[in-house]
Design goal:
eleven-stranded mixed sheet, disordered C terminus, globular, 47% helix, 11 strands
């Protein structure tokens, strides 16, 4: 198996992307195909000792820029993201990783790989550092702004399979993001999704509120992509705000400056716990190949982790498992008396 | 003018509620009518020196409990919240404050006061401590789980008037909570609301993301009550999580314990900044009387602040201003060429 990497995507491409790929093949010997401008990628690779590392280059002359519209991928078959998708489609790799234009990556992946039979929409999983053993998976974090109840059921199922396969969570607890814990609380969408989640073959624990996302109450949070994106960005904003506020207050007197100096190891550990780079990226699930959408700001470290995540997603056959469980769900509902 | 207070509502009622009312009349001489069981309220008042304070009691034998259904108010005219609403309706007071069952309070207030002409739905404002000069107003924070675009426009308008009148914000910046700053980003509801907000007589600055709620980018955030409630609870959860994480890490070694001790004044100032008690409650706007929904957990201090907020809401005639601006908006749209 191999991972195909869009080496031209991301704010620090191709330097950080190539450096991350080199590190990933050093720590785990899975092949990586770097897709992008041959000359640029060769130049980047020469900066590292790549002797014996399973790295190869596939030339792609064009790049979709961050300011391009996502639909640009349709007209630009020579862009690195399109060439990368084609390689996976042709079986040259089993997973796609990109830190480039996320809308373009999703569009290219949907076009190239297609949806798993029975899956209504692919969805993006946010990996939230709610505990040390494994992240909490929030699905959908923004691929689908408007959703139907069935999609929220499927997001719960895909999230559950991902938590189980990739993070080894037994019987993952799935919660529905809503505005009260009682089953009667919610909006039209969540109320209808509640019923479908109760019927689904997963460990549905009911509604959860925004304040539970970071608690250990659930392993998987299912919601529409609008609500999920707002919640995720709100979390990020709160962490930044509190951190900035605390920094300013700690600077206010010599006593607190000294306190902050002594307390620094604790602050560093908290920062490390909240570090998005640890997870590397957001899995896009529901398509016929594994896809990891890495953060546009990805550093080499974030890229290495995104590549490891892609490797694990393929190794645990998440796509195959989703395929199988959805087929079971659909055949079950066909024969059910309802 | 007088404030009518449901003295039986809240986790710490009537003790904390009465104590908060006593304090409010001490610091500002507006009359307060305490509604509830005469014997209990008299006993509570005897605990304080109330000489010369403008406090009175209106007997109400019944109480809506937290576990009751909100619709119970319809059948229980002798409950403290219903009696309190009746007093306001009869002109005995100009604002209602309650820390009791929030659903029941909203139902009783809607039933008793009615909507301002032209206002589709009343909405709850969350006061978020995003800066020291004035809070950021998030509207709706949960009164309306499913909304129409017009309601989001009206929420923006009501929030803008509230920020202007009660907090003295000049030309308040109103942002629409969405999943990207570009006008093209959002769900069906937010995209339609965007157009209506552009047309409204307010300072609409476009979409904001969850991470901007705590920034100083806007003074007012408009959104449907489902999204608003999820965002607000997520903020609360993030603050609690980071605080707990930091506490645990600070306890990990003698060095960081000492650091924490020295840094304590800074931690206390950050905590004070994030303290919901400072604002006391959530204004419910869009009805023909001022209403403040205080937190169920309200302490005496929170209650005092809720009463001051109610006083200011009445003094600045927020209800009248909303009435007037909505009438202008509606007459404007009737004569517009569209």
């Amino acid at each position: 198996m191999a991972i195909v990497l869009d080496a031209m995507g991301g704010d620090h491409a191709p330097q950080a992307i190539v450096a991350g790929a080199v590190q990933a093949t050093r720590s785990s010997q899975f092949p990586i195909v770097l897709v992008g401008r041959q000359d640029m990628l060769e130049a980047e690779l020469r900066k590292h000792d790549t002797t014996g590392l399973p790295l190869s280059i596939q030339h792609a002359p064009d790049v979709i820029a961050m300011h391009d519209h996502a639909t640009a991928v349709r007209q630009r078959p020579e862009s690195s993201i399109r060439v990368a998708c084609d390689l996976v489609k042709q079986g040259e790799g089993q997973a796609l990783v990109s830190a480039g234009h996320s809308g373009a990556t999703m569009a290219a992946a949907l076009m190239g790989f297609g949806r798993i039979a029975g899956i209504s929409r692919p969805a993006l999983i946010a990996l939230i550092p709610a505990r040390t053993s494994h992240p909490t998976l929030l699905i959908d974090m923004g691929a689908n702004a408007d959703c139907k109840p069935l999609q929220l059921q499927q997001f719960g199922l895909m999230g559950s399979i991902y938590a189980e396969q990739v993070y080894g969570v037994e019987n993952p607890k799935v919660g529905l993001l809503s505005i009260g814990e009682e089953p009667s609380k919610g909006n039209e969408l969540s109320l209808a999704a509640y019923t479908l989640l109760e019927e689904a073959p997963l460990n549905f624990v009911g509604n959860i509120e925004g304040r539970h996302i970071l608690s250990e109450a659930v392993d998987v949070v299912t919601c529409d992509g609008f609500t999920g994106n707002v919640a995720l960005k709100t979390l990020e904003g709160a962490a930044e705000y509190i951190s900035a506020l605390l920094k300013a207050e700690l600077r206010a007197s010599p006593r607190t400056v000294l306190g902050a100096l002594l307390a620094r190891p604790a602050f560093n550990r908290v920062r490390a716990r909240m570090d998005y780079e640890e997870y590397g990226g957001a899995p896009l699930v529901g398509l016929n190949s594994a896809v990891i959408i890495a953060h546009g700001r990805s550093s080499a470290k974030a890229m290495t982790n995104a590549l490891h995540l892609a490797h694990r997603t393929v190794a645990m056959d998440v796509t195959g498992k989703i395929n199988q469980r959805v087929a079971e769900l659909l055949s079950g509902s066909e024969t059910s008396p309802a």
